[in-house]
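Action item from last week, closing it out:
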Amino acid sequence: MRQIAEQFNKRGLTSQWGKPWTKKLVYALLAADKKGAYALDRVQFEAITEARSRGLKYAQMAVEFSERKVPRRDNRPWTARAINERWYDLAKRFKPTEEVTT
């Protein structure tokens, strides 16, 4: 996993969040194929959590997620309402790594 991450980074590839690859990100990408919906939920949860930690409002997240092509089940562009609904659905199942307020 570490070697794959190193190769991605050497080639200038970034993750969907615009960050360098790590062995953990590579593993998550490969595991996503096996986990299906759970993996998509996790990606969305982490994206929203990270955006909240930067103090973004849902409308700002919607623009950013659509530009970065953060995946949705229905492949539509993100909206503030969709992110708000998604956050509360996902927060019930995943524990945030740190307490964040918006």
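Closing note: Confidence is low (pLDDT under 50) at residues 98-102.
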